[in-house]
Amino acid sequence: MKFRPAYILLFILFAATLALAGVDLDVGTKLAKPNPSGVDVRQYPAADDMELGHIKWVLKLANQNIADFNNFQQLDDQGTSARRYEIAFSSYFLAMEQFHKFPAWQGPIANAMDRLNQKMLEKTVWQYWAHESQGVTKFEPKMDRPYPSEKDPVKHRNIMYSAHVALMMNLY
Predict the structure, then answer these.
(1) pLDDT score of 66 more than 50
(2) CA-CA 20 to 30 A from 13: which of 1, 24, 132, 164?
(3) Which of 65-69, 115-119, 141-145: highest mean pLDDT?
(4) Smallest Cα–Cα separation from 86: which of 62, 64, 52, 53?
């Protein structure tokens, strides 16, 4: 292996910078010393088997084809698909696991969150709004006539879907 003078100069500058900053380059003796910060890695929260199984399940759901909603079968109180809730809370779960338990395991979780975001924007997830935008008498008992139908789920009055989409994008 041939060392170029520029690399040697960079290494000398790097070592000098560390020495001026007070960093000790004697790594061999530091490994034998106790941890000076007092951090005990055994005290970190760890995921149990049930939690790991749940993570695997959510990763499996997220990694399906974007238009494939197998295993997203929950219904809401109106009898329509509640995929929006399943997708949103799966994303929140992954974000919490990423932050609290797996801060160094970013790749698969970030990819899954991206795919969940894409799934949330699929028409089959938000098409319920064309019907519900006309009003739901269960929630508005004094409603005397339906509102005009809205096809855009983020344009007017759908604060729940809009908030889920915004939070999912921000967590990603």
Answers:
(1) yes
(2) 1
(3) 115-119
(4) 62
Integer Cα distance of 8 and 13 in angstroms = 9
Q: Which two structure tokens, joined as six digits, stand for 57?
A: 């399940």
The token pair at 162 is: 């809009």
- Sort 134 into a burial class: Cβ within 10 Å, 0-12 / 13-18 / 19+: middle
pLDDT at 31 over 50: no
| DSSP class per residue in 133-146 | TT--TTT-TT--SP
- Which one-letter DSSP state was computed for residue 44? S
Q: What is the mean pLDDT of the chain?
A: 79
**Pair of tokens at residue 129:** 């709004």
Ramachandran angles phi, psi of 81, nearest 5°: -60, 135
Averaged pLDDT, 130-146 = 78
CA distance 14 to 99: 32
Task: Residue 1: count other Cβ atoms within 10 Å of its Cβ.
Answer: 2
Cα 35 to Cα 19, 22, 27, 39, 47: the distances in Å are 21, 18, 13, 7, 24
User: pLDDT over 70 for what percent of the chain?
Assistant: 74
Give me the residue label for tokens 């020495």: 19
C-alpha span between 11 and 25 (Å, rounded): 13
Residue 143 neighbours by CB under 8 Å, 6+ apart: 135, 137
